[in-house]
Amino acid sequence: MATAAALVLTGLAVGAGVSAAAGTPVDKTLAFTCPFPLIGNQTLQVRIRATMSTPDTVGGDLVTTDFSATATVPPTATQGLALVGAKTIEGTAQAGVTLNEAGTPLDITIPGLVIPSTPVPDSGAFDTVASGPVPTATITKAGTTTVSVGGFSTTLTPKKADGTPTGLGTFTSDCTLNPGQDAQLISFQTKDGPPPTTTPPTTTTTTTTPPPTTTTTTTTTTTTTKPTTTTTAPPGTITYSYSIKGSSEIKRLHTDVAIRGGITAKLDLGTSRYTADLTLNPTSARFAIFGFIPVTTKIAFEPQGQTTGAVANGALDARSELAVKMPLISVFGLPISRSAACGTSKPSVVTMTSGPGFDVLKGGTLSGSYALAPLRGCGLFTPFISALATGPGNTIDLTLKAS
């Protein structure tokens, strides 16, 4: 989108129900890494606030009240939402916590947390809040009990101003707690409680006259419940445009060729794959034959069909087919070929990849390689020129900037 993009929030807590006594306030902010469509992993700060009432003895309940979890959505994710026309975002979440009783950990999933409809600004960070009922935890062991935060998952639906879903549809993001943080919310001690009071059973003797024998016919009715169906809005497409600046090294000629141009990509939000129209400006190169004979040539990289590729986990790959043309070649400033047909006998397949930090909302760098096929159409000097340029191992390095 990105991503792009999309956002996260959840609630993390244990306990619910009737508060026993004045509890301990909890206020902690933790960082999570959350994957989003198109824009890859994003870091979210989530502030967890609640009041936790703890029991003194085994058999008592751990109760949480006044719970809220506020997630700060980063500016990059806001850009992605704005790009797809999102004006609000809403959804649900489920969270994981670990209840550790006297050294025995128990992982608990808390479902049903609600993310109400929240306005999405045009830019910058914004906050969303999650809340919902959570289960009571009955403490069964004496000793030290702790409650710690785990990961969480959100299912979110960005919506347009008219209330309809955006091209992102409804998506799920599974978030993990960043390492090196103190995830503990509370720690408390419990001791063994008094033994339960035992009441001896009461024995009652009853004399019953057996009833007359009867025949009963039973009719059984079977009720079929139709399963609930969750519908996700179909994904759409987003168009991105970038300017291109970079260079290509033609290995056999020992020269770098400047590259300028642009690309417009249409990204399928459902598959994260794209098709793009690539335009590269005519350029030129200078090199020397035998180390001292100066040669200049005009060069054109002409796309053959569309560029294709995918965006995944913040990285991008691309595949293009380019016909390489040399419409003017000069030695010592004198033209030896003026043929518009002079060029490679078949297109070069150029494959490129980005590093993991590629940002579809801003751009990034790509690098790759390609081979040059033998030349043709260059007149009497075709064999000589072809021998100079043909071969594999040519490299290309580009910087894409959103335009």
Explain the overall architecture.
With 403 residues, the protein is mostly beta strands. It has two helices and 23 strands. It has helices at 75-83, 382-389, and strands spanning 24-36, 40-53, 61-73, 88-101, 104-119, 126-130, 137-138, 143-159, 171-177, 184-190, 237-250, 255-268, 273-280, 283-289, 293-303, 307-312, 315-331, 334-337, 343-344, 348-354, 363-372, 375-376, 391-402. It is elongated and about 105 Å long. The chain starts with 23 loop residues before the first strand and ends with a strand.
Q: Can I get a quick summary?
A:
The protein has 403 residues and is mainly β. It has helices at residues 75-83, 382-389, and strands spanning 24-36, 40-53, 61-73, 88-101, 104-119, 126-130, 137-138, 143-159, 171-177, 184-190, 237-250, 255-268, 273-280, 283-289, 293-303, 307-312, 315-331, 334-337, 343-344, 348-354, 363-372, 375-376, 391-402.
